[in-house]
Amino acid sequence: MGVEKKILVIPGDGIGQEVTSWGKKVLEAIAENFKHKFTFDEGIMGHVAIEATGDPLPDETLEKARKSDAILFGAIGHAKYDNDPTLKVRPEQGLLKIRKELGLYANLRPIKLFDDLLQASSIKPEILQGADILFFRELTGDVYFGEKKRSEDRTSASDLMIYHKYEVERIARKAYEAARTRRKKLCSVDKANVLEASRLWREVVQEIAKEYPDVETEHMFIDNAAMQLIKDPKRFDVVLTGNLFGDILTDEASQIAGSMGMLASASVGDAIGFYEPIHGSAHDIAGKGLANPLASILSAALLLDISFGLKDEAQRVIKAVDVTLRQGYRTMDIATKHTANEFILGTDAMGAKVLDNLN
Ligand SMILES: NC(=O)c1ccc[n+]([C@@H]2O[C@H](COP(=O)([O-])OP(=O)(O)OC[C@H]3O[C@@H](n4cnc5c(N)ncnc54)[C@H](O)[C@@H]3O)[C@@H](O)[C@H]2O)c1
Ligand SMILES: CC(C)[C@H](C(=O)O)[C@@H](O)C(=O)O
Ligand SMILES: [Mg+2]
Known about the structure:
Bound molecules: nicotinamide-adenine-dinucleotide, 3-isopropylmalic acid, magnesium ion
EC number: 1.1.1.85
Enzyme class: oxidoreductase
Number of domains: 2
Strand content: 15-25%
Subcellular location: Cytoplasm
Number of helices: 13
Strand order of the largest sheet: 2-1-3-12-11-4-5-10-8-9
CATH class of the largest domain: Alpha Beta
Cofactor: Mg(2+); Mn(2+)
Shape: globular
Protein name: 3-isopropylmalate dehydrogenase
Distance between the termini: 19 Å
CATH topology of the largest domain: Isopropylmalate Dehydrogenase
Order of helices and strands: EHEHHEHHEHEEEHEHEHEHEEHHEEH
């Protein structure tokens, strides 16, 4: 007997619309193959929601989110806002609000390199081979949520970087638990040589580390971590870091996996799980049918695994992605140009190949 689950799909803006339909199709195919009953609802967020309601996260979407068992999200953002920083209502506010409202404080970003993409990166294969990192990015604190100010004459501005002890404790415990199931190494990344919020971060992680003596703990400054990640990615197992540093380091780490279009993520915390590619709405390729749908498809795999505990189903999805890459199918962003046996596809053709390989 299969499971019955309600999934809310929020495609968002730009390529979010294009790739999320493939994450959803994969979930539908899994439900059919494994005799589960997934019912889907759809919500709006971001620029499309501002256009429709004036609000980047309408109450209706939030209500639907609270009533679902898991959420599959695409991306938000529109060039209009990026080009006009004075606009007060912005798509990104919707994403930040839903993360806060649903208590999604831990953002897991696995950096998994598929064998066939070893040549897709600009990093040398011998440096990449064997790299396997799991980022724990804190998601509901830091400069993102600290007080924002603009002086009356509007010539100075500030965003408060603030962390509370409990916020560091809860994500640190999650990261240590994960490290225990992996290679038992945790690297905490901060800027404790300069920032007081980072000194608190390090102090708290040092305390929590005592609960996990079987895990080897390392503390690294963000500037060094950004360099080590590219120099020797294999030295990292679990990386624990704050909201802003985690945002930046994981875009950098996408080059280990070959492309932004390959990186999925899971945001978890108080209750419900929220699954999304780490990439944005990609104005440069939006509407052209070129976006890589694999990050959305791999986000669906994380959803099956983490929110529903359906590990075999999740593995089936990952295997279908692997087979598709082995067959030589590539979207533009992961084309290697190293072999003649490569077939460059658009979003829909690539999604369809994965779907074929699922069945
Ligand atoms: N989680 C989110 O919704 C999220 C994340 C990042 C950025 N954004 C928003 O997205 C907009 C664009 O931001 P950006 O350009 O800095 O970052 P982006 O992640 O959208 O794109 C960065 C680069 O990666 C490429 N790329 C991203 N996803 C891809 C995919 N699936 N396939 C192929 N190539 C892909 C893009 O073409 C672009 O060159 C902004 O408005 C930003 O605020 C949203
Ligand atoms: C769009 C933005 C708010 C978001 C973030 O900074 O968290 C994005 O870059 C991400 O990585 O999900
Ligand atoms: Mg980001």
